[in-house]
Amino acid sequence: MKTAAFLGLGAMGVPMAAALARRAAQTGGRVLVWNRHMEKALAHAAEYGTQAATLQDTAQASVIFTCLPTSADVDEVIGQLEAHLNPGTVWVDCTSGHPDAARAQRARLLTHGVRFLDAPVSGGVNGAKAGNLTVMLGGPADEVEAVRGELAFAGTAVHVGDTGSGFAVKAVNNALLAVNLWATGEGLAVLGRGGVDLNAALQVINASSGRSNASENLIPARVLTREFPPTFGLGLLAKDTGIAMDLVDSVKGSAPVLAQVDALCRAASRMIGPNEDHTALLKLVEQMNEQEIR
Amino acid sequence: MKTAAFLGLGAMGVPMAAALARRAAQTGGRVLVWNRHMEKALAHAAEYGTQAATLQDTAQASVIFTCLPTSADVDEVIGQLEAHLNPGTVWVDCTSGHPDAARAQRARLLTHGVRFLDAPVSGGVNGAKAGNLTVMLGGPADEVEAVRGELAFAGTAVHVGDTGSGFAVKAVNNALLAVNLWATGEGLAVLGRGGVDLNAALQVINASSGRSNASENLIPARVLTREFPPTFGLGLLAKDTGIAMDLVDSVKGSAPVLAQVDALCRAASRMIGPNEDHTALLKLVEQMNEQEIR
Amino acid sequence: MKTAAFLGLGAMGVPMAAALARRAAQTGGRVLVWNRHMEKALAHAAEYGTQAATLQDTAQASVIFTCLPTSADVDEVIGQLEAHLNPGTVWVDCTSGHPDAARAQRARLLTHGVRFLDAPVSGGVNGAKAGNLTVMLGGPADEVEAVRGELAFAGTAVHVGDTGSGFAVKAVNNALLAVNLWATGEGLAVLGRGGVDLNAALQVINASSGRSNASENLIPARVLTREFPPTFGLGLLAKDTGIAMDLVDSVKGSAPVLAQVDALCRAASRMIGPNEDHTALLKLVEQMNEQEIR
Amino acid sequence: MKTAAFLGLGAMGVPMAAALARRAAQTGGRVLVWNRHMEKALAHAAEYGTQAATLQDTAQASVIFTCLPTSADVDEVIGQLEAHLNPGTVWVDCTSGHPDAARAQRARLLTHGVRFLDAPVSGGVNGAKAGNLTVMLGGPADEVEAVRGELAFAGTAVHVGDTGSGFAVKAVNNALLAVNLWATGEGLAVLGRGGVDLNAALQVINASSGRSNASENLIPARVLTREFPPTFGLGLLAKDTGIAMDLVDSVKGSAPVLAQVDALCRAASRMIGPNEDHTALLKLVEQMNEQEIR
Q1: By CB distance 3.0 to 4.6 Å, which of A70, C22, D139, D291 could disulfide with D117?
Q2: What SUPFAM superfamilies does its record include (chains A, B, C, D) (predicted)?
Q3: What's the CATH code, domain B168-289?
Q4: CB atoms closer than 10 angstroms to residue B79
């Protein structure tokens, strides 16, 4: 019987592990789940038919998934687990991690015969529940192909390059999210000060060339409503723009706009709060313009 | 018999006037067309069933449309035409114009009993041919409603606010286009330097939260192909980001990212060329990173 | 007996008019002073031997100096005074004004035979008291030379170009002040977070290539001391960076760093307060970094 | 007899080692010099009375100075020398290095009983020749005090904090140099487009609040003259702004202006050339504005 393990039952991890469990129920496998707080694993098992496990027990799985806040958390888990790992295991890290960490983690795990793939996801909690996340895979092509069938939570899984490339693309994606969100916020704040109806403005922008996921989805649903539902935290967005800047630095690139928005995200994380929803980034734009976006 | 006039037969004006002519053919009206170069008007008449007219003749139309490069060009046409205008005429300016100009033009035309509405469009040449442009209307609500039925080239027509608001929203839309395009270019150049496959990267970004019209349409069709087809010029994009900055200034707003991208657009217009397609903006990003986006 | 008039007794105007009075005492001339609040003029007369005058009375002076918050204030005074002005009068405007306003004001005053020169000053209250301000003169060379001897408050008076050039150079100077101040604040906040002693850091920077008036004078005297004495307001600095950006726009220039700092100054003026000293700009840097600069 | 060694005879190293030799001639010590290209060491010995040495021979010195392009070069030299080092030796690194490298280098050398201090310098070739460089020392206070007397090339030597702090302050200093230089270039390019005389503009800026080392020294001597003498390379400036950004990142700081100028320096290094003088940074500003600064 095939065994998978899922480590990290956060907002994304819960539905991702549930998707693995639905698949396992059809194919006769099983899914072990682990979380720093054991009660979350027990609750997951009760609700989705997975099995709560100790960290050590998860080492027996043939595929180990991680989905943790940062690469440093993954390092810590690897440290606790590596003595127990079996050669031939595949480690699929869905964390929004750091490309440099991916290369170090792969090298470290290879000494145990374990293959590491970076596999961050996009699509949010709704995408995870629907099992149609986008997965960006970094690593050797054959290993990527071999694991593709295991990604029960994926709608799209794309091999983007060598180890670390998945994390790199994810960081750039989130940096673009931050840019598009911030810039659209600037534009709306200014139009608002000028007396323009912001719902009408967004309607035409969304039928025009300036549209983005920020203008089409995030701002109408989360900002104009003043709800800012806390799903993906501002502190984590700032972490991701920082990873994007590390990437820029590592290739000696020049990215003045990404750099500026990274600095503004970090400022917003401090001034508005790291645990606020990432769309609360626009609260700093609002303060800078004394103009609510509503 | 109802008469409309269309002044300015550029890349957008030709299909927009053709849409008016198709409608007129059904409703028994006629469409006069004028262009600085008379042969363009004659060719349009031959192909689309409009009537080439002198500038003075267009003054007899009940609705006069203008679609010119800048508000300064509209000012010049108003100057030549105002002695001939009839009270009750409606002037619909589809130029990507300046909000301050709109207010001055409306005031000036009202002295002749002519009502001016700013009505810039979005959707490009393809949208114009299909008759489903997005129109952003600025002016008094009743006048906007009265003219709505005349906009044969529109798929969506939205009243966004008082006189000048249409131009303001259009400028912000184009500034957002510039930001999204530039930032996506930065991200791709850096990923390219890092050895990531850019087609794969765009595929996942377009299934993820960082997507925009730039990543979904412009870059795949115009940049990755290295075609940069010259439809909307870089110089005109820089003009529009400049209008957006004038708007920021007029409301004492703070928009550091729009400001930065405006400066970079202006630099690119000089260094790459104002008549290059607006997507050639990314050629400056490429030079800054010594990395082609392909 | 030669008569000069000084209009606008603010922090700068008081010592500037006093310098004129000291000169007049030697040369047998007299100095009329006017202020919106008459008591300020009376107090000045009592302390410095000038003569408080009504606005209309100042029109008899052969040289009229203005030093007001903005060009709009100068426009208003011109409006009230123009019916009374005599041909041959010279109007020297020491306001930190707008180049466009200078050209309009000169044209308007020339219709009355009055010559307008833009003549903003730098050096602060201390420089004004010492009579060694730097004056940047814009206008025809012969008129500039003719008025040079009247500038009793000047240590240095430089003809920088045609009408409006004085205001342009002043705006650029103040924009550079804003950039140098902000950037030095960023650097110090980051060093402070890294545990570096900021007095030591400033000591070496001021003996090195990164030094500026901000690092040598403003930050040690006003920021490290936490005094932020309110001499030149943050709102006025933001006005001046805005004038610099108008200048950039008028020549179709590309100045991404000036543009960014202009936006940040405007944000700081809103978030910290327009009447705080301009060095309180760094309080926004401090908030963005959660690090006091001390 | 006391022995010092100086490793790295570049533009700065030659006069710094010469200053050590002048001191040694008075105190009865000697100075060993080493360079990757032995002929440079032989020439230095012939001209300044030092002794050319093999790398291994320099290990006998009680104080070893390094002044190399980057911390990576210092790492390489340490690797070749560490087997030969004697406990009690002090290693003073005058490279414009990286704070992270300093901490690693100190830890590595301490295993051999060698104490490492980061001691970058400012003042340029002229300051080195005059023996009045500014030295920014990072490390334990007692070790800094103990070595102070050895710094024969220093006019000012300031202890700025723990290991790495010297490099941090140097990086921030050079980043501020880059900001001040770039921003002044923007301002002058725009004034030049507006017809202002740039010599006159600089004269008043240098007597006003916007002045900096860039406006007072670098631009008049190197840019207005169109000489751009290649003393400190643009590529090295971009390396230093990059170190400053690493520092910002390491403390989770927010420095949008330093970040933007870092990106622009990197672009200029690519587009203008890394071996051009750092003031050739303004050639990119000139291209962006189609306006020479002269």
Answers
A1: D139
A2: 6-phosphogluconate dehydrogenase C-terminal domain-like, NAD(P)-binding Rossmann-fold domains
A3: 1.10.1040.10
A4: 10
